[in-house]
Amino acid sequence: MTSIISSKTLSELYRYLQTNGGSYNDLRNFFVNSGINPDENILSTSSRNKDIFLDKYIRPLNLSDRIDTLRLIKFIELILTFPPLPESESLVECLRQDGWQIIGNRIVQAAHDVESILLSMTQGQPIETIQREWDRAILSINTDPADALTAASSMIEATFKFILHNTGTSFPTKQDIQGLSKAVYPLLKISPEKEVDEDFRTLFQSTISIIQSLGTIRTKIGDAHGASPSRAEPAEKHARLATNVAGALSLFLLETYVERKMQA
């Protein structure tokens, strides 16, 4: 299996750590907090003390294995400053060439579909509820479209609640999509009126309308409030559309939250 982190990136990491990343004790703690333990039996071929130290932690890793790779990525997240400083530009560029990207203070594998990006955003983060509703929606599209609609709406609600909780903001009395969105949008400074460009203003307004529509659909044809005898039965295509839209909107909210947090 091909290594997920190239030898060029490893060389750049070693170079960066010669003068950055903290003391030996700091680095030792960063390794431990990343789940990486030293192998004292490793014989380094380098004459530099820092390289000898790093070899004991990094050389035992199997960088063709996803778990070991993610451990090293976690370590890199701990030694970097976000947004990255000029001295780490070469390392960040090497990671980019290996197929990694920076989202907020996370280094994740670059992806282009909603599911992959959302998984990268949620991995290792305390937002299991969002992930759980996403998984539920995906699994229910073909077997229970109504439940997929409910899960899609619940995922947006879970995203709103995650942002409110992490910002120390009290939950609104009305904890449905509309009530939660009204509490979260000011925190994220999401407002169509603030956009100078008319096209972006329309896009953001459409985003708000879509979120409100998901709540309405959930009430009318989802299963969250009990089935009405005369309700329209959603098809797989409706469930798939709602799930993908909810995933994209959840990602948009999370990325906006991380961006605002980094600017604070």
CATH class of the largest domain: Mainly Alpha
CATH architecture group name of the largest domain: Up-down Bundle
The parts where pLDDT drops under 50 for at least 5 residues are none
Number of helices: 11
What is the approximate shape? elongated
* Strand order within the widest beta sheet: 1-2
Strand proportion: under 5%
Largest sheet: 2 strands, antiparallel
What is the terminal separation in angstroms? 41 Å
CATH topology of the largest domain: Four Helix Bundle (Hemerythrin (Met), subunit A)
Quick take:
With 264 residues, the chain is mainly α. It folds into 2 domains: 104 residues, no CATH class; 148 residues, Four Helix Bundle (Hemerythrin (Met), subunit A) (Up-down Bundle).
Report on the architecture of this protein.
With 264 residues, the chain is mainly alpha-helical. The chain has 2 domains: 104 residues, no CATH class; 148 residues, Four Helix Bundle (Hemerythrin (Met), subunit A), CATH 1.20.120. Helix content is 61%, strand content 3%. It contains 11 helices and 2 strands. A two-stranded antiparallel sheet has the order 1-2. A hairpin with a 2-residue loop joins strand 1 and strand 2. The longest helix has 28 residues. The radius of gyration is 22 Å and the shape is elongated.
